[in-house]
Amino acid sequence: MNKIKFLLVIVLAAFMACDSEEVFDEQEQLAIDRQLITEYLADNNITAEQIGETGIYYAISQSGTGDNAEFASSVYADYRGYLLDGTEFDSGTIDFVVGAGSVIQGWELGFQELNKGASATLFIPSKYGYGSSRQGTTIPANSVLLFDVTVVDIR
């Protein structure tokens, strides 16, 4: 019983220590990210399609062939990830299953718009990337992520 009281005191103290002015508003951040992406697209004269109301955009630079990737498809792709200011944070080749949760949600949704051989740029709001979490020293919290991707194969 004393352990439960102790845990309740710790939880209550942590709750009281939270500054109400620092409460993260995911919808507000999504609106900011959408604005940043649409400004980037306009400034760079890029035509892109939005995926539903997500705020994720994609611009196909080379069309592929066949069916688009879908839930449970295994996608093999080359990629380069960078921030809006051009800072590259990752590149390489990846093999993942759409819907397995092994990649960021922006990829789960974005790759479903692409087929084998397609090359595109994905513009991903922070909500569908790493959110309010900082990733290492390169990706600040609430960062819009851009990925140049090429779908090598879909199985």
Automatic annotation (TrEMBL):
Reaction it catalyzes: [protein]-peptidylproline (omega=180) = [protein]-peptidylproline (omega=0)
Domain PPIase FKBP-type: 72-155
Repeat listed as a keyword: no
Enzyme class: isomerase
Spans through the membrane: none
InterPro entries assigned to the protein according to its UniProt record, in alphabetical order: FKBP2/11 (IPR044609), PPIase_dom_sf (IPR046357), PPIase_FKBP_dom (IPR001179)
Entry EC no(s): 5.2.1.8
Pfam families according to UniProt: FKBP_C
Keywords: Isomerase, Rotamase
One example GO MF annotation: peptidyl-prolyl cis-trans isomerase activity
Similarity-based family: Belongs to the FKBP-type PPIase family.
Protein name: Peptidyl-prolyl cis-trans isomerase
Organism classification: Bacteria, Pseudomonadati, Bacteroidota, Cytophagia, Cytophagales
